[in-house]
Fold:
Amino acid sequence: MHFFFNFSEDIPEEFHSSENHQPHTECSVCGNGFGKDHYFIEKAFQKTYDKTEFQLTFEYAVCERCKTDMMKSISKESMQNIQDFAMNMGAMPRLKSSEEVEIDMDFLLNHCIASGKSLDDLEEYHLVGIFKNDKLVQLPMVYGESFIEEYSELLSEETKGFFDDFFNNITVLPPTLAKILEDEKPRRPVLI
Structure:
């Protein structure tokens, strides 16, 4: 997939920390501030038992250095499967800047980028963004359960084990994620 090179928007509230309702300021893995480097945020949501609302199941922000380290831990088999999968998804228009097209941020934050389904039609979803200098620098991405399931199936057992370990290394866990880990429920893969 291709995303805009010169995209720069204020951080949408959807990406703010669930604990203090402010933008994330430090890496959930190493605890360091982001400085002037890129950083990545992923938040996962699942509909409540009564299907009336979404509940946050986990969130984290990861600095560029930790993300690079994470990528080294993904097996070659999984990396090839992920690259093939991404290539088959199709591509977004190649534009030099976000000024060449009107961007409907509300639509992007409320629809799965893979299926086009509205959040209302999903049981779970992940919200992923890339940031730098307190700005969203590429289009936000929402992935619904069908994409998450397909993505999970691409991963080798080695990579699934890495993702399990990843959550054990996060320095600050939201209460919901801490409860999931405590209960040892199955976890979803990290998408960033």
